[in-house]
Amino acid sequence: MTVEALKAEIEKLPPGERSALVRWLSDREEAEWDEQIRADHRAGKLDELIGRARREHSDGSIREAP
To answer: Fewer CB atoms inside 10 Å of the end CB: C or N, the chain?
Structure first.
């Protein structure tokens, strides 16, 4: 099935079903993102960023987010 075919089928859903689909997709995206972050952490891809954050916290150079 193509994305265009899926879109057409989604358009036919009643509002409550579309809302349930949106929630499901959102939950799925969040879970995939969380797993990617965990995988990156296990692979050491975040080590430099974590180290930098710890150094900046220790030396007091962290700034407030805008």
So the answer is: C
